[in-house]
Specification:
This protein is 81% helix and 0% strand. It has one domain (19-128). By secondary structure, it is mainly α. The chain has three helices and no strands.
């Protein structure tokens, strides 16, 4: 004899599938909004720190320029104290600066010559475009 199963009545406390989906969607939305707010707070703090750091480095750079000027004047005056004419001492410091500038230019030019295009990235990009073109023609 076959038993016939009778559907059990749903309890009033059990939510329907639609209600569960709606609740999950609302929870996910709340979680996403919270994550976005957290990201905003973290970025705001990071941007503030970056701005303060940039200002501090800028101030240090300006002070370094002034310090270098005073150091170069002191170097020239030290050469004068060693018995060289003042104009010659300043000319020596000028020549020293030109030498340092020349070395920096030579190093800069040699490094610029070593700059290359991202060849592998360009090649894979071309491969991707070619692949997508063949896929769209077939489809």
């Amino acid at each position: 004899m076959a038993t016939v199963s009778t559907p059990t009545p749903r309890h009033a406390a059990e939510p329907s599938v639609g209600e569960l989906v709606a609740e999950a969607s609302a929870s996910l939305s709340t979680i996403l909004r919270g994550e976005i707010e957290l990201a905003k707070l973290e970025l705001k703090s990071s941007v503030k720190n970056a701005a303060i750091s940039g200002a501090a480095f800028g101030a240090a750079g300006v002070m370094l320029v002034f310090a270098a000027i005073f150091g170069l004047v002191a170097l020239a005056e030290g050469i004068v104290a060693a018995g060289i004419w003042r104009w010659a001492a300043y000319l020596i410091v000028f020549g020293l600066l030109m030498l340092v500038i020349g070395l920096a230019v030579v190093v800069g030019i040699s490094k610029v010559k070593k700059v290359k295009a991202p060849e592998q990235t360009i090649e894979t990009g071309k491969d991707t475009v070619a692949y997508l073109k063949t896929r769209t023609k077939r489809g």
